[in-house]
Amino acid sequence: MTENNNDVILKVVNLKQHFKTGVGKYKMLNKAVDGVSFEVKRGEVFSLVGESGCGKTTTGRTIIKIYKPTDGEVYLLGKRIVAGTKGCKDEIAKLKAELPIKIKEIKLDVNLSEADKTSKIVELKAQTKSRIDELKAEIKQRNHDQNTKYRPAKEEVEAYKEAAKKRIAELKELIRKENAAFAAFKAQAFKQTDSLPANTDPDTKERIHNEELAIYREVRRKKNKAVREYQSEITTQITSPKFFNRPLLNKMQMVFQDPIDSLNPRMNVKDIIAESLYINGIKHDDIVLEKVYEVLKLVGLQPDHADHYPHEFSGGQRQRVGIARAIISEPQLIIADEPISALDVSIQAQVINLLNELRHKLGLTILFIAHDLSVVKFLSDRIAIMYLGKIVEMGSKDKVFNNPLHPYTLSLISSIPMPDPDFERARKGVIKYDPRVHDYSVDKPTLREIEPDHLIYANDKEFEEYKKKLAANK
Protein backbone atom coordinates (compact mmCIF):
# COMPACT_ATOMS: atom_id res chain seq x y z
CA MET A 1 0.00 0.00 0.00
CA THR A 2 1.49 3.33 -0.97
CA GLU A 3 0.68 7.00 -1.07
CA ASN A 4 1.45 9.05 -4.16
CA ASN A 5 1.70 12.59 -2.80
CA ASN A 6 5.27 13.48 -3.71
CA ASP A 7 5.18 16.61 -1.53
CA VAL A 8 4.58 14.59 1.66
CA ILE A 9 7.69 12.90 3.01
CA LEU A 10 6.12 11.49 6.21
CA LYS A 11 2.48 10.57 6.80
CA VAL A 12 1.17 9.31 10.14
CA VAL A 13 -2.35 7.83 10.26
CA ASN A 14 -4.18 7.09 13.53
CA LEU A 15 -0.96 6.11 15.32
CA LYS A 16 -1.45 4.51 18.74
CA GLN A 17 1.12 3.39 21.29
CA HIS A 18 -0.29 1.85 24.46
CA PHE A 19 1.77 0.46 27.35
CA LYS A 20 0.59 -1.97 30.00
CA THR A 21 1.56 -1.03 33.55
CA GLY A 22 1.05 -2.60 36.97
CA VAL A 23 0.07 -6.15 37.92
CA GLY A 24 -3.05 -7.88 39.17
CA LYS A 25 -5.86 -5.52 40.20
CA TYR A 26 -3.48 -2.58 39.64
CA LYS A 27 -3.01 -3.40 35.97
CA MET A 28 -3.60 -0.36 33.76
CA LEU A 29 -3.31 0.66 30.13
CA ASN A 30 -1.28 3.82 29.54
CA LYS A 31 -2.36 5.39 26.23
CA ALA A 32 0.87 7.29 25.57
CA VAL A 33 -0.13 8.01 21.96
CA ASP A 34 -3.81 7.68 21.13
CA GLY A 35 -4.82 8.22 17.52
CA VAL A 36 -2.31 10.77 16.22
CA SER A 37 -2.47 11.75 12.53
CA PHE A 38 -0.40 14.33 10.65
CA GLU A 39 1.69 14.90 7.53
CA VAL A 40 5.17 16.37 7.19
CA LYS A 41 5.93 18.03 3.87
CA ARG A 42 9.29 17.97 2.15
CA GLY A 43 11.74 20.63 3.34
CA GLU A 44 9.67 21.92 6.28
CA VAL A 45 10.15 21.86 10.05
CA PHE A 46 7.11 20.27 11.70
CA SER A 47 7.06 20.58 15.49
CA LEU A 48 5.35 18.40 18.09
CA VAL A 49 4.87 20.52 21.22
CA GLY A 50 3.58 19.73 24.67
CA GLU A 51 4.42 19.27 28.32
CA SER A 52 6.44 16.30 29.56
CA GLY A 53 4.39 13.12 29.36
CA CYS A 54 2.11 14.24 26.53
CA GLY A 55 3.45 11.52 24.17
CA LYS A 56 5.53 13.56 21.74
CA THR A 57 8.78 11.60 22.29
CA THR A 58 6.90 8.29 22.14
CA THR A 59 5.41 9.40 18.82
CA GLY A 60 8.88 10.08 17.40
CA ARG A 61 10.29 6.79 18.65
CA THR A 62 7.34 4.82 17.29
CA ILE A 63 7.72 6.46 13.89
CA ILE A 64 11.39 5.46 13.69
CA LYS A 65 10.46 1.93 14.91
CA ILE A 66 12.19 1.99 18.27
CA TYR A 67 8.78 0.98 19.62
CA LYS A 68 6.38 -1.38 17.90
CA PRO A 69 3.07 0.47 17.44
CA THR A 70 -0.18 -0.70 18.96
CA ASP A 71 -2.12 0.49 15.93
CA GLY A 72 -1.96 2.90 13.02
CA GLU A 73 0.21 3.39 9.98
CA VAL A 74 3.33 5.37 9.07
CA TYR A 75 4.33 6.14 5.48
CA LEU A 76 7.85 7.29 4.58
CA LEU A 77 8.39 8.54 1.03
CA GLY A 78 5.06 6.97 0.06
CA LYS A 79 5.85 3.50 1.42
CA ARG A 80 4.25 2.05 4.53
CA ILE A 81 6.95 1.27 7.11
CA VAL A 82 4.76 0.82 10.21
CA ALA A 83 1.41 -0.93 10.49
CA GLY A 84 -0.25 -2.07 13.72
CA THR A 85 -3.27 -4.40 13.79
CA LYS A 86 -4.36 -4.36 17.45
CA GLY A 87 -6.90 -1.60 16.86
CA CYS A 88 -8.61 -3.64 14.14
CA LYS A 89 -8.71 -6.73 16.36
CA ASP A 90 -10.12 -4.74 19.29
CA GLU A 91 -12.85 -3.27 17.10
CA ILE A 92 -13.82 -6.77 15.86
CA ALA A 93 -14.09 -7.98 19.47
CA LYS A 94 -16.18 -4.92 20.40
CA LEU A 95 -18.56 -5.43 17.46
CA LYS A 96 -19.06 -9.08 18.38
CA ALA A 97 -19.70 -8.23 22.03
CA GLU A 98 -22.18 -5.43 21.23
CA LEU A 99 -24.20 -7.37 18.65
CA PRO A 100 -26.30 -9.54 21.07
CA ILE A 101 -26.93 -6.49 23.31
CA LYS A 102 -28.27 -4.46 20.37
CA ILE A 103 -30.40 -7.38 19.18
CA LYS A 104 -31.92 -7.68 22.65
CA GLU A 105 -32.69 -3.93 22.70
CA ILE A 106 -34.51 -4.25 19.36
CA LYS A 107 -36.56 -7.22 20.58
CA LEU A 108 -37.60 -5.31 23.71
CA ASP A 109 -38.67 -2.20 21.76
CA VAL A 110 -42.45 -2.11 22.16
CA ASN A 111 -42.82 0.54 19.46
CA LEU A 112 -41.78 -1.86 16.71
CA SER A 113 -43.84 -4.56 15.05
CA GLU A 114 -42.49 -8.09 14.74
CA ALA A 115 -41.80 -7.55 11.05
CA ASP A 116 -39.86 -4.34 11.79
CA LYS A 117 -37.91 -6.07 14.55
CA THR A 118 -36.94 -8.90 12.21
CA SER A 119 -35.96 -6.44 9.48
CA LYS A 120 -33.81 -4.34 11.83
CA ILE A 121 -32.07 -7.41 13.30
CA VAL A 122 -31.24 -8.71 9.81
CA GLU A 123 -29.94 -5.28 8.79
CA LEU A 124 -27.86 -4.97 11.99
CA LYS A 125 -26.30 -8.40 11.48
CA ALA A 126 -25.46 -7.58 7.87
CA GLN A 127 -23.85 -4.25 8.83
CA THR A 128 -21.82 -5.88 11.61
CA LYS A 129 -20.69 -8.72 9.34
CA SER A 130 -19.71 -6.25 6.62
CA ARG A 131 -17.64 -4.16 9.03
CA ILE A 132 -15.95 -7.24 10.53
CA ASP A 133 -15.09 -8.49 7.03
CA GLU A 134 -13.55 -5.07 6.21
CA LEU A 135 -11.42 -5.18 9.37
CA LYS A 136 -10.30 -8.75 8.72
CA ALA A 137 -9.35 -7.80 5.16
CA GLU A 138 -7.32 -4.85 6.50
CA ILE A 139 -5.50 -7.11 8.98
CA LYS A 140 -4.80 -9.63 6.22
CA GLN A 141 -3.52 -6.88 3.91
CA ARG A 142 -1.19 -5.44 6.57
CA ASN A 143 0.20 -8.88 7.43
CA HIS A 144 0.61 -9.61 3.72
CA ASP A 145 2.53 -6.35 3.25
CA GLN A 146 4.89 -7.28 6.08
CA ASN A 147 5.40 -10.82 4.77
CA THR A 148 5.92 -9.55 1.23
CA LYS A 149 8.59 -7.17 2.47
CA TYR A 150 10.56 -9.81 4.39
CA ARG A 151 9.95 -12.96 2.32
CA PRO A 152 12.64 -12.18 -0.29
CA ALA A 153 15.08 -11.45 2.51
CA LYS A 154 14.34 -14.78 4.21
CA GLU A 155 14.71 -16.66 0.93
CA GLU A 156 18.05 -15.00 0.16
CA VAL A 157 19.32 -15.69 3.69
CA GLU A 158 18.43 -19.37 3.27
CA ALA A 159 20.20 -19.44 -0.11
CA TYR A 160 23.33 -17.93 1.46
CA LYS A 161 23.17 -20.44 4.30
CA GLU A 162 22.99 -23.33 1.85
CA ALA A 163 25.89 -21.88 -0.16
CA ALA A 164 27.85 -21.43 3.05
CA LYS A 165 27.26 -25.06 4.12
CA LYS A 166 28.41 -26.28 0.72
CA ARG A 167 31.50 -24.07 0.72
CA ILE A 168 32.41 -25.02 4.31
CA ALA A 169 32.11 -28.72 3.41
CA GLU A 170 34.50 -28.08 0.51
CA LEU A 171 36.91 -26.30 2.85
CA LYS A 172 36.77 -29.17 5.33
CA GLU A 173 37.57 -31.64 2.56
CA LEU A 174 40.44 -29.43 1.39
CA ILE A 175 41.74 -29.17 4.98
CA ARG A 176 41.55 -32.97 5.36
CA LYS A 177 43.62 -33.45 2.23
CA GLU A 178 46.08 -30.77 3.36
CA ASN A 179 46.39 -32.43 6.76
CA ALA A 180 47.03 -35.80 5.15
CA ALA A 181 49.62 -34.32 2.80
CA PHE A 182 51.30 -32.39 5.62
CA ALA A 183 51.29 -35.48 7.88
CA ALA A 184 53.13 -37.37 5.15
CA PHE A 185 55.53 -34.44 4.69
CA LYS A 186 56.10 -34.21 8.45
CA ALA A 187 56.70 -37.94 8.80
CA GLN A 188 59.19 -37.85 5.92
CA ALA A 189 60.93 -34.75 7.33
CA PHE A 190 61.29 -36.20 10.81
CA LYS A 191 62.41 -39.50 9.33
CA GLN A 192 65.16 -37.65 7.51
CA THR A 193 66.06 -35.83 10.70
CA ASP A 194 66.20 -39.07 12.64
CA SER A 195 68.42 -40.56 9.92
CA LEU A 196 71.05 -37.88 10.43
CA PRO A 197 74.44 -39.22 11.43
CA ALA A 198 74.82 -39.91 15.13
CA ASN A 199 77.66 -37.44 15.40
CA THR A 200 75.49 -34.54 14.06
CA ASP A 201 75.72 -31.46 16.22
CA PRO A 202 72.68 -31.25 18.63
CA ASP A 203 72.23 -27.56 17.76
CA THR A 204 71.91 -28.47 14.09
CA LYS A 205 69.27 -31.10 14.91
CA GLU A 206 67.29 -28.59 17.00
CA ARG A 207 67.50 -25.97 14.23
CA ILE A 208 66.14 -28.46 11.67
CA HIS A 209 63.28 -29.42 14.03
CA ASN A 210 62.41 -25.75 14.58
CA GLU A 211 62.36 -25.06 10.84
CA GLU A 212 60.00 -28.00 10.32
CA LEU A 213 57.71 -26.75 13.12
CA ALA A 214 57.76 -23.23 11.64
CA ILE A 215 56.62 -24.60 8.29
CA TYR A 216 53.85 -26.55 10.03
CA ARG A 217 52.66 -23.49 12.00
CA GLU A 218 52.67 -21.26 8.88
CA VAL A 219 50.54 -23.73 6.96
CA ARG A 220 48.08 -23.96 9.88
CA ARG A 221 47.95 -20.15 10.22
CA LYS A 222 47.16 -19.60 6.54
CA LYS A 223 44.55 -22.32 6.60
CA ASN A 224 42.78 -20.87 9.66
CA LYS A 225 42.94 -17.36 8.19
CA ALA A 226 41.24 -18.57 4.99
CA VAL A 227 38.42 -20.16 7.00
CA ARG A 228 37.91 -17.03 9.13
CA GLU A 229 37.84 -14.76 6.08
CA TYR A 230 35.21 -16.92 4.41
CA GLN A 231 33.06 -17.07 7.53
CA SER A 232 33.29 -13.28 7.81
CA GLU A 233 32.25 -12.94 4.16
CA ILE A 234 29.19 -15.13 4.72
CA THR A 235 28.19 -13.11 7.83
CA THR A 236 28.53 -9.84 5.91
CA GLN A 237 26.35 -11.17 3.10
CA ILE A 238 23.63 -12.43 5.43
CA THR A 239 23.47 -9.10 7.32
CA SER A 240 23.52 -7.09 4.11
CA PRO A 241 21.39 -3.90 4.18
CA LYS A 242 19.06 -5.16 1.47
CA PHE A 243 17.67 -7.81 3.81
CA PHE A 244 16.19 -5.27 6.19
CA ASN A 245 14.96 -2.51 3.89
CA ARG A 246 17.77 -0.25 5.13
CA PRO A 247 17.95 1.86 1.97
CA LEU A 248 14.51 3.22 2.90
CA LEU A 249 15.00 3.40 6.66
CA ASN A 250 18.31 5.21 6.20
CA LYS A 251 16.28 8.13 4.83
CA MET A 252 15.11 8.72 8.42
CA GLN A 253 17.45 9.31 11.38
CA MET A 254 17.06 10.54 14.94
CA VAL A 255 18.86 13.06 17.15
CA PHE A 256 18.28 12.13 20.79
CA GLN A 257 17.55 14.34 23.74
CA ASP A 258 20.47 13.50 26.02
CA PRO A 259 23.85 13.91 24.29
CA ILE A 260 25.57 11.96 27.09
CA ASP A 261 23.42 8.82 27.26
CA SER A 262 22.97 8.60 23.49
CA LEU A 263 26.74 8.24 22.81
CA ASN A 264 28.69 5.10 23.67
CA PRO A 265 31.44 6.15 26.12
CA ARG A 266 33.66 3.25 24.99
CA MET A 267 33.74 4.36 21.36
CA ASN A 268 35.64 7.31 19.94
CA VAL A 269 33.86 9.91 17.83
CA LYS A 270 35.00 8.37 14.55
CA ASP A 271 33.47 4.98 15.42
CA ILE A 272 30.27 6.56 16.80
CA ILE A 273 29.65 8.58 13.64
CA ALA A 274 30.79 5.85 11.24
CA GLU A 275 28.66 3.12 12.84
CA SER A 276 25.88 3.75 10.31
CA LEU A 277 28.35 3.28 7.46
CA TYR A 278 29.67 0.03 8.93
CA ILE A 279 26.13 -1.33 9.37
CA ASN A 280 25.42 -0.58 5.73
CA GLY A 281 28.45 -2.50 4.51
CA ILE A 282 30.93 0.37 3.91
CA LYS A 283 34.18 -1.05 5.31
CA HIS A 284 36.94 0.81 3.44
CA ASP A 285 38.81 2.87 6.03
CA ASP A 286 39.77 5.71 3.68
CA ILE A 287 36.18 6.21 2.53
CA VAL A 288 34.82 6.03 6.08
CA LEU A 289 37.41 8.48 7.44
CA GLU A 290 36.83 10.97 4.63
CA LYS A 291 33.06 10.88 5.25
CA VAL A 292 33.52 11.31 9.02
CA TYR A 293 35.81 14.33 8.52
CA GLU A 294 33.26 15.84 6.13
CA VAL A 295 30.31 15.65 8.56
CA LEU A 296 32.45 16.85 11.47
CA LYS A 297 33.18 20.03 9.53
CA LEU A 298 29.49 20.39 8.66
CA VAL A 299 28.51 20.41 12.36
CA GLY A 300 31.27 22.81 13.39
CA LEU A 301 33.86 20.36 14.76
CA GLN A 302 37.41 19.67 13.64
CA PRO A 303 38.72 16.46 12.00
CA ASP A 304 41.14 15.87 14.89
CA HIS A 305 38.08 15.48 17.17
CA ALA A 306 37.51 12.09 15.50
CA ASP A 307 39.96 10.37 17.88
CA HIS A 308 38.41 11.84 21.04
CA TYR A 309 35.86 10.21 23.34
CA PRO A 310 32.45 11.64 24.40
CA HIS A 311 33.57 12.54 27.94
CA GLU A 312 36.18 14.90 26.49
CA PHE A 313 33.51 17.20 24.98
CA SER A 314 31.10 19.76 26.34
CA GLY A 315 27.32 19.16 26.14
CA GLY A 316 26.97 21.27 23.00
CA GLN A 317 29.84 19.48 21.28
CA ARG A 318 28.38 16.09 22.18
CA GLN A 319 25.08 17.11 20.63
CA ARG A 320 26.96 18.14 17.48
CA VAL A 321 28.45 14.63 17.40
CA GLY A 322 24.90 13.23 17.66
CA ILE A 323 23.80 15.40 14.76
CA ALA A 324 26.84 14.30 12.71
CA ARG A 325 25.93 10.66 13.38
CA ALA A 326 22.40 11.33 12.11
CA ILE A 327 23.36 13.08 8.85
CA ILE A 328 26.26 10.83 7.76
CA SER A 329 23.86 8.39 6.06
CA GLU A 330 22.39 11.31 4.04
CA PRO A 331 18.80 11.08 5.37
CA GLN A 332 15.87 13.11 4.09
CA LEU A 333 14.05 13.23 7.43
CA ILE A 334 15.54 14.03 10.84
CA ILE A 335 13.54 13.36 14.01
CA ALA A 336 15.01 15.78 16.57
CA ASP A 337 13.81 14.71 20.02
CA GLU A 338 14.24 17.77 22.27
CA PRO A 339 17.86 18.19 21.08
CA ILE A 340 18.44 21.36 23.15
CA SER A 341 16.59 20.69 26.41
CA ALA A 342 19.76 19.47 28.21
CA LEU A 343 21.91 22.42 27.06
CA ASP A 344 22.62 25.93 28.33
CA VAL A 345 20.61 28.74 26.75
CA SER A 346 23.57 30.14 24.78
CA ILE A 347 24.41 26.69 23.46
CA GLN A 348 20.75 26.06 22.60
CA ALA A 349 20.85 28.96 20.16
CA GLN A 350 23.96 27.55 18.48
CA VAL A 351 22.42 24.09 18.04
CA ILE A 352 19.14 25.55 16.70
CA ASN A 353 21.06 27.70 14.21
CA LEU A 354 23.09 24.63 13.19
CA LEU A 355 19.92 22.58 12.53
CA ASN A 356 18.45 25.45 10.52
CA GLU A 357 21.64 25.79 8.49
CA LEU A 358 21.86 22.04 7.81
CA ARG A 359 18.19 22.03 6.84
CA HIS A 360 18.83 24.47 4.00
CA LYS A 361 22.29 23.17 3.04
CA LEU A 362 21.36 19.46 2.91
CA GLY A 363 17.67 19.80 2.01
CA LEU A 364 16.52 18.16 5.24
CA THR A 365 13.00 17.79 6.56
CA ILE A 366 12.82 17.97 10.35
CA LEU A 367 10.27 16.58 12.80
CA PHE A 368 11.15 18.74 15.80
CA ILE A 369 9.98 17.60 19.25
CA ALA A 370 10.08 20.26 21.98
CA HIS A 371 8.26 21.88 24.88
CA ASP A 372 9.79 25.35 24.49
CA LEU A 373 7.36 27.34 22.37
CA SER A 374 9.76 30.25 21.90
CA VAL A 375 12.22 27.94 20.12
CA VAL A 376 9.43 26.31 18.15
CA LYS A 377 8.17 29.69 16.97
CA PHE A 378 11.62 30.57 15.62
CA LEU A 379 12.34 27.29 13.83
CA SER A 380 9.04 25.74 12.75
CA ASP A 381 6.82 26.02 9.70
CA ARG A 382 3.91 24.05 11.14
CA ILE A 383 3.03 23.04 14.71
CA ALA A 384 1.01 20.31 16.42
CA ILE A 385 0.10 20.77 20.10
CA MET A 386 -0.15 17.46 22.01
CA TYR A 387 -1.96 16.72 25.25
CA LEU A 388 -2.29 13.25 26.81
CA GLY A 389 -1.47 11.39 23.62
CA LYS A 390 -3.70 13.42 21.30
CA ILE A 391 -3.17 16.39 19.00
CA VAL A 392 -5.45 19.17 20.27
CA GLU A 393 -4.47 21.88 17.77
CA MET A 394 -2.44 21.86 14.57
CA GLY A 395 -1.64 24.32 11.84
CA SER A 396 0.83 26.78 10.43
CA LYS A 397 3.04 28.62 12.91
CA ASP A 398 1.37 31.98 12.30
CA LYS A 399 -2.18 30.67 12.69
CA VAL A 400 -1.49 28.73 15.89
CA PHE A 401 0.38 31.61 17.56
CA ASN A 402 -1.83 34.43 16.28
CA ASN A 403 -5.18 32.69 16.75
CA PRO A 404 -4.81 29.99 19.43
CA LEU A 405 -8.20 28.39 20.06
CA HIS A 406 -7.84 25.35 22.29
CA PRO A 407 -7.57 26.18 26.03
CA TYR A 408 -4.43 24.05 26.36
CA THR A 409 -2.73 25.96 23.53
CA LEU A 410 -3.66 29.24 25.24
CA SER A 411 -2.13 27.95 28.46
CA LEU A 412 1.15 27.03 26.78
CA ILE A 413 1.45 30.32 24.89
CA SER A 414 0.67 32.36 28.01
CA SER A 415 3.61 30.71 29.79
CA ILE A 416 6.23 31.92 27.27
CA PRO A 417 8.54 34.39 29.04
CA MET A 418 9.04 37.69 27.21
CA PRO A 419 12.25 39.78 27.39
CA ASP A 420 10.21 42.89 28.12
CA PRO A 421 9.96 44.09 31.74
CA ASP A 422 6.90 46.24 31.05
CA PHE A 423 5.08 43.35 29.40
CA GLU A 424 5.96 40.99 32.25
CA ARG A 425 4.74 43.48 34.86
CA ALA A 426 1.47 43.91 32.99
CA ARG A 427 1.01 40.16 32.51
CA LYS A 428 -2.03 38.99 34.43
CA GLY A 429 -0.59 35.54 34.94
CA VAL A 430 -0.38 32.18 33.21
CA ILE A 431 -3.68 30.80 31.93
CA LYS A 432 -4.22 27.49 33.69
CA TYR A 433 -5.72 24.64 31.69
CA ASP A 434 -8.43 22.53 33.31
CA PRO A 435 -9.45 19.49 31.19
CA ARG A 436 -12.77 19.37 33.07
CA VAL A 437 -14.04 22.28 30.97
CA HIS A 438 -14.72 19.75 28.20
CA ASP A 439 -17.86 17.61 28.27
CA TYR A 440 -17.21 14.65 26.00
CA SER A 441 -19.61 12.21 27.65
CA VAL A 442 -22.02 12.23 24.67
CA ASP A 443 -20.69 14.55 21.99
CA LYS A 444 -17.30 13.03 21.13
CA PRO A 445 -14.46 15.24 19.84
CA THR A 446 -12.44 14.85 16.63
CA LEU A 447 -9.60 16.77 15.02
CA ARG A 448 -11.30 18.94 12.40
CA GLU A 449 -10.36 21.84 10.15
CA ILE A 450 -11.67 25.19 11.36
CA GLU A 451 -9.90 27.21 8.63
CA PRO A 452 -7.34 26.37 5.93
CA ASP A 453 -4.22 24.84 7.54
CA HIS A 454 -5.66 25.11 11.05
CA LEU A 455 -7.20 22.12 12.83
CA ILE A 456 -8.76 21.93 16.28
CA TYR A 457 -9.72 18.98 18.55
CA ALA A 458 -13.33 19.63 19.50
CA ASN A 459 -16.86 18.27 19.56
CA ASP A 460 -19.71 19.89 17.65
CA LYS A 461 -20.62 22.36 20.41
CA GLU A 462 -17.02 23.47 20.99
CA PHE A 463 -16.37 23.73 17.27
CA GLU A 464 -19.16 26.28 16.85
CA GLU A 465 -17.79 28.29 19.78
CA TYR A 466 -14.28 28.23 18.31
CA LYS A 467 -15.63 29.41 14.94
CA LYS A 468 -17.27 32.40 16.59
CA LYS A 469 -14.09 33.20 18.51
CA LEU A 470 -12.01 32.95 15.34
CA ALA A 471 -14.39 35.27 13.48
CA ALA A 472 -14.23 37.77 16.35
CA ASN A 473 -10.42 37.75 16.33
CA LYS A 474 -10.38 38.58 12.63
Describe the protein's architecture and organization.
With 474 residues, this protein is of the alpha/beta class. The protein is built from 14 helices and twelve strands. Helix content is 53%, strand content 18%. It comes from Acholeplasma hippikon. Residues 10-413 form the ABC transporter domain. Keywords: ATP-binding, Coiled coil, Hydrolase, Nucleotide-binding, Transport.
**Envelope shape:** flat
Bin the strand percentage.
15-25%
Overall pLDDT score:
81
- SS-based structural class? alpha/beta
Helix content: 40-55%
* Continuous helix count: 14
CATH topology of the domain at 8-89: Rossmann fold
Q: Return the CATH class of the domain at 8-89.
A: Alpha Beta
Given as residue ranges, the uncertain stretches (5+ residues, pLDDT < 50) are: 237-244
Q: Outline the biggest β-sheet.
A: 8 strands, mixed
Itemize the secondary structure elements and their pairings.
Layout: E1 8-21, E2 28-41, E3 45-49, H1 56-63, E4 71-76, E5 79-85, H2 86-107, H3 114-194, H4 202-238, H5 246-249, E6 252-255, H6 269-279, H7 285-298, H8 315-327, E7 333-337, H9 345-362, E8 365-370, H10 373-379, E9 382-387, E10 390-396, H11 397-402, H12 407-414, H13 421-426, E11 446-451, E12 454-458, H14 460-473
Parallel strand pairs: 3-8, 3-9, 6-7, 7-8
Antiparallel strand pairs: 1-2, 1-4, 4-5, 9-10, 10-12, 11-12
Helix pairs in contact: 2-3, 3-4, 6-7, 6-8, 7-8, 8-9
